[in-house]
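EI: anyone free to look at a 337-residue chain?
SC: sure, send it
EI:
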Amino acid sequence: MKTRPKYQSILEKIGNTPLVSLPFDVPPTLLAKLEYLNPGGSIKDRSALFMIEKAEEDGSLKQYGTIIEASSGNQGIALAMIGAIKGYKVIITVPDRTSIEKITTLKAYGAKVYICPDTDDLGDQNSYHSKARQLYEQTPGAFMPNQYFNIANPLAHYSKTGPEIWRQTSGSITHLVVGAGSCGTISGVGRFLKEQNPAIKIIGVDAETSVYSCKNPKAYDVEGLGIDVISDTLDREAIDEIIPISDDDAFRSTRILASQGYLVGISSGAVMHVALSYAKKLDKKDVMVVIFGDSGRAYLSKLFASTRPVTPSIRTEMTTTDEQPRASLQQSQEGVV
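SC: here you go
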């Protein structure tokens, strides 16, 4: 008699990522949710699958159809993976700041990739958003998830990610720090957590030259965050504060984390930079959760082939009181899985 596998598809392994303790010298308990352990390598697996399943249910996406999306990389990768498994054609438009590793991954999954200029204005006819819309209008039977406007995006995180964090912390979470781009994660998780406990603080991290954080928006190098589209996916009532970060600080922080054993993506480095600074204002009774949205393996050429220096001030923030870097995760505390 053959043993029936517990999981019938790799897509069933999306979500339920671990929450682990981070041993940095700050007053609160600091925990990280490891979203890079999703099958497609990022938190975007969650929203991509949720949006595709909704589209299948309502008939927006038909069998053997074509999925078209604008993405800085991870949303596209998640859609390309799902498309390859389910038998859909996938076309992804990306800005030219997207790492070569992400572009190669998209192609590996069989997606057709259009690399577009990283314009200051997403309304520019040459932007990757405009190109995706153009391709969608030209392709019969196409479906565009349109993560920046699709309410299913935050709903995915309200339904799954938020409850996971609440359960994994046994309801003890007091602060959440997360990168903000399409705002699906921060809005969905933030709304769920505040429904459980309105006192929980939800802190977003944004690119400092984004449309949201800058009066004169400009293109930036950081990937995985940057609020350039203000739509209904941004739930302002679920967010307490959005803190901008520069490219330099995000890159430096990410490199330091790698040298200490945490090879995470640039947005995760940005989140940790903000979290460590913010944590200085907290005390031992607080529990801060940060979301590591993807892995540093998606940015090796961009992170370690460039020349952005690591400054002593940043390095000091990421070491222990004896100034020795921690190179491994501490054993998870009780109630953290």
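EI: DSSP finds ten helices and ten strands in the chain.
SC: 👍
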